[in-house]
Here is the input.
Amino acid sequence: MTEQVVGAWVDMWNSYDSCQIDKLFLVNDKLTYFSSAKEGIIKGIKAVHAHHEESGFVPGGKAQENRWWVEDLHASDFGSVIVVTGIWNLRKGSGGTQRGPMTFVYVSQGDDYRLAHLHFANY
Here is the structure.
């Protein structure tokens, strides 16, 4: 399950498809997000959409050279909440790779899990 839900997030970033945001995140104001690229906390689905649009996301996605992947995933299941930790990696075009620790908090939404909180840090 962990690889599948985190993989969906990686696929969204690699495609730059803003249409995937509402399928992966809580669609409310309780959603929180600490980005490694921006200071402060991003609160609520509208702010998450704006953050992704600032990063170049568009409906339907677009071809681009940046590539995300994750390593060393570990999931802790607390019933209706799953906490996933790991290492994120981002290669921007032909440049070097950035990386750091990440935490995703998923909450149960019926038969599905949605991202309620994300936290990215840099090494």
Observations:
- Strands lie at 32-34, 41-43, 67-77, 81-91, 97-109, 112-120.
- The first strand starts at residue 32 and ends at 34.
- The mean pLDDT is 94.
